[in-house]
Amino acid sequence: MTHILLVEDDPAIAMSLKVTCKREGWDMTWLDNASSVLPMLHSDEARDLSAIIMDVGLPDGDGLSLCQQIRHATDIDTLKDLPIVFLTARSDEVDRILGLEMGGDDYCAKPFSPRELVARLKAIWRREQLLVQQSESYTTNDKVENTPAINLTGQALTFENQAGVWHYQPLNYSLRWQEQKLELSNTERKILLSLLQAPNQVFSREQLLNAVSDYPDHRLARTIDSHVKSIRKQLATVDASIDVIHTHRGLGYALCPA
Predict the structure, then answer these.
(1) Which residue segment(s) compose the domain that 88 sits in?
(2) What is the pLDDT of residues 71-116, one digit of tens each?
(3) 160 and 123 both lie in a single domain
(4) Residue 144 pLDDT exceeds 80
């Protein structure tokens, strides 16, 4: 389900947008202050976020600075590229330009129509999808050649890298690291196996989606981020001192060191 984070201190605006999101079949989380945003983005609730709607003027800060913090955060790599739409009562062109330069994707000036805001979000998502499709049209052959097939033939596999030793048993879908069984979903296991079988490759979201799905829907490429976050949490229960999966900003994911 599409999940929107709204950061807005006006309850009337929040309730209006909540009704509009419900009509669209979207879920919405509402925060009325700036200080709650980063903790929320570190929580499990943020795993399926699709966009952030953020008021520029908040009671304990401003949305422009908060946007900049999100874009430059080093500990929420999977969420740093989320679309951000500003809500602003400011009519000054300089303020609107500043918002876009600090990482915003669009803005709506108050008063605004909730349906207009929904249309702006859909336009952003369409542009993202178009960029993905254009990227795929240029790199399809490269992706086919460089995306490894997942070994499900029944042959046990052993991988060894600087993070330690990994054992995979296809007969019972068991993947172990440092002699500890990892509790992963089928998709998460395939993502990790893809990375293990090509340890020197940086995978884009779309490449990983191709590797784990026979029928990839590239609108869901960002769900790879949520799966990677879940994998990292599981790995941390075995050894939190090793950063096994590295995020290459603007590119994708690879084993550490790549």
Answers:
(1) 3-130
(2) 877 677 667 678 899 998 766 665 667 777 777 888 888 888 999 9
(3) no
(4) no
Beta strand 49-55 pairing with 3-7:
parallel
Residues 179-192 have pLDDT tens digits of 999 988 888 888 99
Looking at residues 156-168, what average pLDDT do you find?
Answer: 86
Please name the residue ranges forming H helices in the chain: 11-24, 37-41, 63-72, 93-101, 114-146, 186-197, 205-212, 223-238
Please name which of 15, 14, 62 lies closest in space to residue 37, comparing C-alpha atoms: 62
**11 and 126 assigned to the same domain:** yes
Task: Looking at the structure, tell me whether residues 168 and 216 fall in a common domain.
Answer: yes
The verdict on residue 135 lying in a domain is no
Strand order through the sheet with 27-31 = 27-31, 3-7, 49-55, 84-88, 106-109
Query: What total of structural domains would you count in the chain?
Result: 2
Instruction: Answer whether the bond into residue 111 is a cis peptide, omega within 30°.
Output: yes
* CATH code for position 68: 3.40.50.2300
Taking the C-alpha atoms of residue 195 and residue 124, their distance in angstroms, rounded to an integer, is 30
Spatial CB neighbours of 17, under 8 Å, sequence gap ≥ 6 = 6, 8, 28, 53, 114, 117
Give a yes or no: residue 137 inside a domain: no
Which class for 101: exposed (0-12), middle (13-18), buried (19 or more C-beta within 10 A)?
Answer: exposed
Do residues 98 and 169 both lie within one domain? no
